[in-house]
Amino acid sequence: xxxxxxxxxxxxxxxxxxxxxxxxxxxxxxxxxxxxxxxxxxxxxxxxxxxxxxxxxxxxxxxxxxxxxxxxxxxxxxxxxxxxxxxxxxxxxxxxxxxxxxxxxxxxxxxxxxxxxxxxxxxxxxxxxxxxxxxxxxxxxxxxxxxxxxxxxxxxxxxxxxxxxxxxxxxxxxxxxxxxxxxxxxxxxxxxxxxxxxxxxxxxxxxxxxxxxxxxxxxxxxxxxxxxxxxxxxxxxxxxxxxxxxxxxxxxxxxxxxxxxxxxxxxxxxxxxxxxxxxxxxxxxxxxxxxxxxxxxxxxxxxxxxxxxxxxxxxxxxxxxxxxxxxxxxxxxxxxxxxxxxxxxxxxxxxxxxxxxxxxxxxxxxxxx
Amino acid sequence: xxxxxxxxxxxxxxxxxxxxxxxxxxxxxxxxxxxxxxxxxxxxxxxxxxxxxxxxxxxxxxxxxxxxxxxxxxxxxxxxxxxxxxxxxxxxxxxxxxxxxxxxxxxxxxxxxxxxxxxxxxxxxxxxxxxxxxxxxxxxxxxxxxxxxxxxxxxxxxxxxxxxxxxxxxxxxxxxxxxxxxxxxxxxxxxxxxxxxxxxxxxxxxxxxxxxxxxxxxxxxxxxxxxxxxxxxxxxxxxxxxxxxxxxxxxxxxxxxxxxxxxxxxxxxxxxxxxxxxxxxxxxxxxxxxxxxxxxxxxxxxxxxxxxxxxxxxxxxxxxxxxxxxxxxxxxxxxxxxxxxxxxxxxxxxxxxxxxxxxxxxxxxxxxxxxxxxxxxxxxxxxxxxxxxxxxxxxxxxxxxxxxxxxxxxxxx
Amino acid sequence: xxxxxxxxxxxxxxxxxxxxxxxxxxxxxxxxxxxxxxxxxxxxxxxxxxxxxxxxxxxxxxxxxxxxxxxxxxxxxxxxxxxxxxxxxxxxxxxxxxxxxxxxxxxxxxxxxxxxxxxxxxxxxxxxxxxxxxxxxxxxxxxxxxxxxxxxxxxxxxxxxxxxxxxxxxxxxxxxxxxxxxxxxxxxxxxxxxxxxxxxxxxxxxxxxxxxxxxxxxxxxxxxxxxxxxxxxxxxxxxxxxxxxxxxxxxxxxxxxxxxxxxxxxxxxxxxxxxxxxxxxxxxxxxxxxxxxxxxxxxxxxxxxxxxxxxxxxxxxxxxxxxxxxxxxxxxxxxxxxxxxxxxxxxxxxxxxxxxxxxxxxxxxxxxxxxxxxxxxxxxxxxxxxxxxxxxxxxxxxxxxxxxxxxxxxxxxxxxxxxxxxxxxxxxxxxxxxxxxxxxxxxxxxxxxxxxxxxxxxxxxxxxxxxxxxxxxxxxxxxxxxxxxxxxxxxxxxxxxxxxxxxxxxxxxxxxxxxxxxxxxxxxxxxxxxxxxxxxxxxxxxxxxxxxxxxxxxxxxxxxxxxxxxxxxxx
Lengths: 369, 413, 571
Description:
heterotrimer; A: mainly alpha; Amino acid/polyamine transporter I; 14 helices; 75% helix; B: alpha/beta; GMP Synthetase, Chain A, domain 3; 2 domains; five-stranded mixed β-sheet; 31% helix; 27% strand
């Protein structure tokens, strides 16, 4: 995300989708099913609508600041200190979530493929890939992401389609799952699934066609909603709720149920191959966003040393958790509420305040005139 | 200079990373693994269980395989759990055991009636095992069952295990019960698991079938279970009927005919043959080729706290057994036949359903899922406790058979 | 000190300082002049422009039209025509390489310039055709002296000379190899047939064979090559510029482009790179390719090389630039994207269904060449559950007596396959097939029966080898073959994890590449408009309406919206 990177509309839509899709591959559908049970589908439609409303507001709020991202806006609002605070909050957010994500995925990969390999080496492999790709420049992996994303999206659809024979449609009943309040009020917390909106805060300066901002935002949220629906539906219809909440990588579990004739019996490794590529891409993007913010607030010229530094931070952070229960704790409640806090509270507050300030300044101007 | 340094650093990194992976490679390579084809679990004499492992002889499918040599290797060990049995077996055989191509898991009847949830869970906990592995409950010791399962039409025993359950689709005499399915139903609040029923058939036929209280001779054909069929062949093992579980405990068995109705209700069958009494000769049967025209319609009401199940089966089909004097071209005749078939199947299905609820007390048909719509929230449903209430269920079965014609000889003969 | 520099090179690198050329919109032609006007300027090529009576005006017009200042093979020869002892200013216009110079020297210039009997004859001004006397009045039919006729009849010992008054006709003649003679005071020009191509030395292409298509290839002589291109393009807008490269060798290179299609920035960038090469000598286009590519780090070819004039001109018409190197029968086409490397010249000649079928095959071949051996080793070492059970058992059975680990087996076989290929190329051609037979058949059979390798592995290696031959471009095929070994390594080290991460990095490298400012994976990454037949699969010929979007050409459409006008002609 260096300042000279220009991103087209399609690329940016996929960029925002990446966050959601990769969390879907990991444990997102499971976490949603855990909160809302059989009413998850209803809940997803509901939170997608809520997310659309939020995005609409976001576009409105950004209208006053064309070509500025959240860092610039906070600079406008509170000067350098606020810029630093917001920048660091977002860097921490990107870095911590991606390191937890990395660790969690590596643990699952280790369980599936490499029982005897220390997890450290799996992490290192990913980190080397991320560092190399980041050194190539942002254009490269944002474009690569555009190429990969359709395949990943298709893979999720394929899991849905090939599992149709295993579906028990009645599992979506009882309609209101764990009760109406859970579905519609505390279920709003499932909004963290749309954490990809965080990228929307940083896109305005990089879009090749800035007037497409709103289209990008809406399309990405709608697509995210659709794929969330697909993946949750797959899990909900295949597994009894008890099973889902026990599994790690639930979508991988679902892919194991695919039977495609007698010859192709276990295609799960192929799906995992696609997802490994997708996850490397996601982590690289997260990394590049933190680097972008860091460079923006410090105006530090040399990128390579930041990349190495952040990579080591990523590795160290991901090595911190001791066991799986800590990882799950970090991955679900911590990630959930940190996302909600950063994306939907901090970002919004800054934007609203900045808008108020802008209006006040304008009024002042008007009086002087 | 810097280029060389970079190159050296790059190579060192690769080597450092390669070592731990390659370490695991040396034991994971295809050469060093022994692929299990079947696992059998019996009650042990000295320990909890006796686990039987079946491997394929590696060079059997290759060129110049000696045909006299048995294609499989069967070893067994007594241990306290499956995992420790695998460990023990690993010390015995040269290669490491890998479950990724395991086709069947056989539990002996005795073992299954003690509860097998621990085994199912620990198997599903391994990433190697496939969810589509078949689960068989054998009426004889599992070891005997595996030993007697020799492929006759296939070269490989793995292929035999692969193909055999497919007959479920067109005979309906045995369910294609898989491990993943079993596991799911074990965790399900609306259904109970089933398994395939297997046995070896060494006794002379017709010994056990006398126990069936059938009024018609032809019904004997389908009122059989594994081990009691009249099949005579070199391959002594057979899979006929369903093993019914209450949660993880084996509680009873369904014979071939009941299995067929079970599959019809679950809509897991493509076509089947059902014999109904002929209207001409009561001692003679008439074979019908039937299939579900559309999905069975199941409506559940809760009357006085206990479920009242409306079940509508819509079957369609043609006549298989044609005689010289039978005239299946008239509509009258066909309607007559359809009503007769409906009546016969209706009675049989009702019997079957009452057997599951009253006698076996398990909802293996998964009727409970249709009751889910009656509740608004999950806690409501949980407090209703469907699986317990199912014992008091009342059934209203409605079977519509539409016999269309005979096959080729449908015209006036 | 050096260590300090080394660390600097690792940690303190400012990426902004690296060379980065982006192909901009050709703003001059795109936004200032409306699309319609460019359209008009195209039409004006066919507009009726008559020859002016003044030779200076004509000369200027011709020079502007043909860009004679930069166009290297356009020759304008000014001289004085001697006719009836009078001298007229005149000039000849022709294209070097398309005409027979002997013909021009002996039968055009000689009779016109040199004094001889024919042109020094000075007779009556008026030529009396007939005379009749009636009533003492003499009526004389007199024909005035006509220099045109005079030259036609007396001065051209040529079989085919035509008088043309429209510039368009004249240019058409010149473009097809005639020479035009303009003479002062005349408002016509002479179109003299002096065609003379070097037909004999042109051979059929050896390495890019097609079934339905022209069977001629570039040769070593640059002038012949430019004439080959001229003969196909037939437009005065085709510019062929000469640039000599190499301080000692002074190798002649020609930059060819169509001036009203190609992007100015692109042309300027190509010329800029060619003009700024500090080499002593330049021997081949292969060298030049490496010298002007954006990066040589990843062995990915970014410039297309071809020996076929038809392929080269196809890209010229798309708005790309071609560089010919004297002494080398391969021309360089730039910019080139990934799609160009997997499309064959045959695609143009086939129905789109056949071409797309072949393109699909090539895509499969690409993946097989790159990934199959790596996948094989990953699957056999880490993901055996992926193999269907029966296949697995036959695989195990085939490997039962093989003593080597799979990685060793596969590397041995791949390397010996490369050896066979290299040896087959280098030996005298009569022996080439022997090497193939001995190497592939005998060796393979012996290795299998001696249980040194398993038969399945031989199949894998053979499929990979065959697939690698299906990649049309030699350089790209080479690159894929090389990277195959990397993927074998990745698969060996960490199975699908290694292949996944390695694959992603490789994809990023491809995405990062640029060929003369054009992203390598365009139109997929970045996503650009691929309508009008510029995607991977080609659309029917009548739907290929657009030139590639990424080239930012001056003329977007390559055909009318309805190209089959005969079908939809409005009465």
